[in-house]
Amino acid sequence: ALVDDFLPGDHPAAAIREEAARALKRGELSVGNIGGGMLAREVRGDVCGWFDPEPGCEEWSALLGYLSQLESFVERLCPLVPELAKNGLAFRSHAMVTCYPGEGAHYVRHVDNPDKNGRKLTAILYLNQGWEADHGGEVRLEPSERGECRVVAPVANRLLLFWSDKRVPHEVLPAKSERYAVTIWFYDGPELSQARAAGCQADDGGAAQRCMVLEQMAATQAAAAAHG
After folding, report:
1. Percent of the chain as helix, strand, coil, to the nearest 5
2. Which of 93, 81, 150, 79 is CA-nearest to residue 124?
3. Backbone torsions φ then ψ of 104, nearest 5 degrees
4. Mean pLDDT throughout 109-122?
5. 97 in Cβ contact with 182 (< 8 Å)
6. How does DSSP classify residue 118?
7. In angstroms, what CA-CA distances link 84 with 91, 196, 215?
8. For residue range 175-194, what is the model confidence (pLDDT) as tens digits?
9. Cβ atoms 32, 47 nearer than 8 A
């Protein structure tokens, strides 16, 4: 689902982007990983940081406003979607603030919840004022049930929502200019409890994506070897 102009007011996404850019300058965004501290720039080219600011935090006042708006929106959404209404959503993750620095930075096809790690709903707010097609950095969604690809431009103040599990593999296409976004995951309570008992719950550092990404890396290496 797409919601354009999600936040009210004048250029609200620009304010969050300014906070993210300041965090980048402070060294609070680091190279993304694929779980277990493993770095793989050929898999994902972003830098990211995890934030859950306390109320009244001046450094993240715009982000706090967004989190409040998003939580209210999802709370209203749940009764309208049978799958969400069944169990509800337990809580949300910290905010993952990401910056793709351009120069073709991308993220290969992956799934946010490949192994029942508790993630139910992915919510991404884009922060790119004045985005144009030649800037790149779109998200390509490949819903498995219908087989129809959809490419979503990362324009400012656009909210993208999709299921976190294997129904929606997705990738970030190469970015030619800086691309900022904020990602939040909402968790399914019963599934998260089972994941915690099994020691495979999602963590705020993205370890839950490790399985799918490593499979993608293996497939890429096998294809290269076959054509080598």
Report:
1. 35, 25, 40
2. 93
3. 85, 10
4. 92
5. yes
6. S
7. 13, 20, 29
8. 999 999 999 999 998 888 88
9. yes
Sequence-ordered alpha helix ranges (H) in the chain: 12-25, 61-77, 82-87, 189-198, 210-227
Q: What pLDDT shows up at residue 146? A: 67
Measure Cα distances from 156 to 5, 20, 114, 129 in Å: 8, 14, 29, 5
Query: Which residue in this structure is represented by tokens 């800086």?
Result: 178
- Is the model more confident about 25 or about 226? 25
Residue 151 pairs in a beta bridge with: 140
Distances (CA, A) of 144 to 82, 168, 199, 204: 20, 6, 27, 26
Name the residue with tokens 């009210």: 8
